[in-house]
Amino acid sequence: MTVTITRSGLLTTVQDLGRPGHAHLGVPRSGALDQPAHRLANRLVGNPATAATLETTVLGCAVRVDRAVTVAVAGAPCAVRVDGRPAAWAAPVRLPAGALVEVGPATRGVRSYLAFAGGIAAAPVLGSRSTDLLSGLGPAPVAPGDVLPLGEPAGPPAGVDVVPTPAPPDPLLLPVLPGPRDDWFTARSLTVLAGSGYRVSPTSNRIGLRLDGPPLERAREGELPSEGMVLGAVQVPPDGRPVVFLADHPTTGGYPVIGVVPAAALAAAAQAAPGTPVRFTPMRRPR
Amino acid sequence: MNLRVLRVGSDALLVELDGAEETIAFHAELQRRRAAGGFPSVTEVVPAERTVLLDGVADPGALAAELPGWRVPPLRTPTDQTVTVPVRYDGADLAEVAALWGVAEAEVARIHSATEFRVAFSGFAPGFGYLTGLPERYRVPRRAAPRAAVPAGAIALAGRYTGAYPRSSPGGWQLIGHTDAVLWDPSREPAALLSPGTLVRFVIEEA
To answer: What is the pTM of this model?
Structure first.
């Protein structure tokens, strides 16, 4: 059982929950950027959360199936069409054999998730089918004409009528725990970071949410020896403009990390379109 | 052992040590304790130049308080489990490295292949190890202009490190040779030939 890509939009990749546990080898975790949306799409078609979906970027994608299969689209809201006719978004949709399912451009947000009952069965690499754009592990981003295998459907589609979906963020609110290198910045920098001056840069990608806005000032010069980086790290390169590390982030880095955004807040970051205002809220660590 | 523990987000710790040797020793001790069943919640242990990152710590406050009290044995000179990597010392920068070292090209190969290396940490690309072992006087700068494509298998020097390129990529290191050894194969267990803590010896392979 296979699907054939007929339109891949701006960027469409295969994603599951990623390959954490290999950072010491220089392997990024990767995985779906909006994990709640990926999980929801899977749940709607009866898949476990570990099944691979297609993650689209802004423009959606179109896919033809060779057999009858149940699909669901979640994440960024968009028009869903089956053989040209409107179909439900964020609900299981039964496709007949040979049908074309179209995930339209996102009406809000950035990334939609297209799940197939059985999941995309591309060959796993280090336990994951995720496309990692930093290191090139996993399947290449999909292109028109690509044929991807599907797995065996695991269970019946979920029997839900209405599912809650968070509205795309505006502004994007990011809680941030200061450190580990907040002492590399002036006290004023944390105030600037918490101010209203930042917007999502169009250069953002799966590696990082890049921000346009006032540069953060260093309190000390010099180079930091490369050190391990976590998901959500707010790294500040020499130009002073913060980058929030997303799933394909490098495992080590030499620029200081002023703070860390908790992973739970990053799903919203995955849906923040370029130009979206961003507001960091410094938090205190419990005890 | 002197160490400083920095909190990273809600459930990670960055342990900062005095130097490279101490970092490798601390990482080895951490791996011993993990192998004995310690820290089951920890998802990542990432050694780097002077730090070790622990991600997924169940009680980071408690572990941060406990770590400075650890007794970390110094690194022993191990006798087993050395990975040997055959190298043809014919890299494009061999003459330049020989000039920087003040020796003949053949002497670069002799010195490098007589050195016991250890993978201090990985990064840059999957399976790319940063190997320490060369004495301080053999430190070399990166090339002024990086190459757009360093071939897979290239053995190269930069700073105090030796590295081996698992696949073709841009790079600014000084190339001294190349190996046909498969440095990275995600379908193999282990995927990386040179993972942190591994002892390595390069052996001269005649052309």
So the answer is: 0.94
